[in-house]
Design a protein that fits this description.
Strands 1-2-3 form a three-stranded parallel sheet. Strands 4-5 form a two-stranded parallel sheet. It has a two-stranded antiparallel sheet with strand order 6-7. The longest helix is centred in the C-terminal third of the chain and has 29 residues. It contains twelve helices and seven strands. The chain is mostly helical. It has two domains: about 210 residues, HUPs (Rossmann fold); about 80 residues, Orthogonal Bundle (Tyrosyl-Transfer RNA Synthetase), CATH 1.10.240.10. Bound molecules: adenosine monophosphate and tryptophan (TRP). Tryptophan binds next to strand 1 and helix 6.
């Protein structure tokens, strides 16, 4: 069949252009894509702009953030000679397959998604309305993944439930209509699978939060990074221990430091006598991680035609990979072949 694969695993992951990329995105996802995934697999990385339309958005801002996210992925070290980087809306197959996923998923299944429940509740509390696409979002995410015969989906912890649903949908579809889709699995980093907000260490560091004092952005200048770490909320007590339940603020700082330096959070805890010293060490480690990314980002911004070219080639390759499988899915459910 036209959509069989080579022996290397196929990897797919995505990032939403709903805000500036954060340290959480980098440590939880992007860094692994750069260091491991692009080298060992046939990997596709996608700026999933259609997903940014599930909440109120400003068109000009989405456009700007989409370019910025793509540029930052390259600045972080994704190499178009090794992997495929592209923008979701430039490959029609995602939206095309999403409809079949909506025909496979159930209403109850989608309403059980934690992210939907949380976001819908937040919108409701503000008196706003909830877009239907916020509910159907996991069907589109399943389409993103399944269109490519993906084996592995490297993501932060927060996406586990969505990938589980994707597996269910792939299995259900295959059972009903024949073996069209590969059943993928999520993979997570060992440390920093969930980087917490520095000012609110029981909440995820999320790029679309309104309150930004506890969020470190990849493009933050060194002094801004230091300021945010110095003001990080720590816990009562003064002893540095790695205890996520009792001391979430300190544990988060230890996770970030460990993730940046390659150490183990439990071991690092013993090296710091005070919260202040730990904050300074974490800040400096992050500044060093971000320095080359910021520099490369500035270079790439000076050459927008390079980024455009990468995205054009990426979309073309992605289209070629997705098309035969989505065609097969359309045929399998009983739709006529392309006229
Ligand atoms: P998003 O920003 O929601 O599009 O997420 C893009 C990727 O970054 C996904 O794999 C997320 O799981 C991951 N991610 C986002 N925020 C965090 C965080 N605070 N800690 C760890 N991973 C994260
Ligand atoms: N839902 C993911 C997030 O919020 C983004 C995403 C969309 C994604 N499609 C994907 C991640 C496919 C991995 C694979 O972070």
């Amino acid at each position: 069949m036209g959509y069989t694969k080579t022996s290397r695993p196929r990897i797919f992951s995505g990032i939403k252009p709903t805000g500036h990329l954060t340290l959480g995105n980098y440590l939880g996802a992007v860094r692994r894509w750069v260091r491991e995934d692009q080298h060992r697999a046939d990997a596709l990385f996608c700026v999933v702009d259609l997903h940014a339309l599930t909440v109120e958005h400003d068109p000009a801002r989405v456009r700007r953030l989409t370019r910025q996210a793509a540029t930052l992925l390259l600045a972080s070290g994704l190499d178009p000679a090794l992997c495929t980087v592209f923008v979701q809306s430039q490959v029609d197959e995602h939206a095309r397959l999403s409809y079949l996923m909506e025909c496979t998923a159930t209403d109850g299944e989608l309403r059980r998604m934690i992210q939907y429940k949380e976001k819908a509740a937040r919108e409701g509390a503000r008196g706003g309305s909830v877009r239907l696409s916020l509910l159907t979002y996991p069907a589109l995410m399943a389409a993103d993944i399944l269109a490519y015969g993906t084996d592995e989906v490297p993501v932060g912890d927060d996406q586990t439930q969505h990938v589980e649903l994707t597996r269910d949908l792939a299995q259900r579809f295959n059972q009903r209509y024949g073996p069209v889709f590969t059943v993928p699995r999520a993979t997570h980093p060992e440390v920093a699978a969930r980087v917490m907000d520095l000012r609110d260490p029981v909440s995820k560091m999320g790029k679309s939060h309104a309150e930004t004092a506890g969020i470190v952005y990849l493009l933050d200048e060194a002094d801004a990074v230091r300021r945010k770490f110095i003001r990080a909320v720590t816990d009562s007590g003064s002893e540095v221990r790695y205890d996520r339940m009792e001391q979430p603020g300190v544990a988060n700082l230890l996770d970030v430091l460990a993730s940046c330096t390659g150490g183990k959070p439990e071991v690092l805890a013993e090296e710091y006598a005070s919260y202040g010293a730990l904050k300074l060490a974490a800040a400096e480690a992050v500044v060093e991680v971000l320095r080359p990314i910021r520099a490369r980002h500035a270079e790439l911004c000076a050459d927008p035609s390079y980024v455009d070219g990468v995205l054009r080639a990426g979309a073309e390759r992605a289209r070629g990979l997705a098309r035969p499988r989505v065609d097969a899915a359309y045929a399998a459910v009983g739709l006529l072949p392309p006229a």
